[in-house]
Amino acid sequence: MKKTLQDLTIKDNFMFGAVMTDPENCKGLLELLLHKKLDRIIVSTEKSMIYHPEYKGVRLDVYAKDDTNTRYNIEMQVLRKSTLGKRSRYYHSQIDMDLLLSGSDYRELPDTYVIFICDFDPFGFGKYLYSFYTACREEGSLAFNDGLYTIFLSTAGKNESEVPEALVSFLKFVKADLSESRKDFHNEYVRKLQRSISQIKENREMEERFMLLEELLQEEHEEGMRKGIEKGRTEERSENLKRLTSLLLSLLQKFDMLPNDLLQKIESMDDPDRFMQWIQFAAESASLPDFLSKIE
């Protein structure tokens, strides 16, 4: 059944994007993750919650920067994907490329954080938090200082004693279904998010934006299905022509070496009906000249 705005929780990409475009909500999440106070967060509404061919469809991740120019890309992940590592690499490179194209020197590149909030355990170790940075394999204490940080949060964590209680409360809120998400998680930041969600659901403009997004996603899905069907038909036709070519050549093997012009004609043929006719001629012909006379 098609979802409405009222059905959404924070784990739905649209709602997460809508909630995190509020700088205070985004700031609270980053402070929770980084264990430090941030003076100010600027969320780029131009790069969040947009539909643009450049991004191959709908882009719903949250892009922000703080007062030290550190950049953040935050994305909700509900479905398990095997390429999250490569996806994080792509996001890091996109941030760098945007900055370099705007005139920054590579020596001025800021620290960047790519953050995935996963409604599953991305690595299977039962952790609420997995954080990565570049370090030397031979000497683990030797950091590379390239400024690249990747963080994975998991709602399927089991190590509550090892992470802040507030982070666990937030991730339990993310994991909750619609009815459970309304309960008290005994955390002020989560209460703030709950209030934001209620306000978004009462906002007529946000409802219209969600409906537009659903239409765009549906159109994208239908276009993908159409292209998939066309591709399937093309591939099926190509495989069928290959089989017919192979069959025809196997029948012609009983004759002497085939002339190059005949081989070229066979390789360039793309009409299945013509192939079937030639296959019949090849089966009936007693010699190569006999076959050639029938196809002329």
From TrEMBL:
Protein name: Putative transposase/invertase (TIGR01784 family)
Species assigned in the record: Faecalimonas umbilicata
Pfam annotation, one family: PDDEXK_2
Database matches in PANTHER family: PD-(D_E)XK NUCLEASE FAMILY TRANSPOSASE
Lineage: Bacteria, Bacillati, Bacillota, Clostridia, Lachnospirales
Top-level division of the source organism's lineage: Bacteria
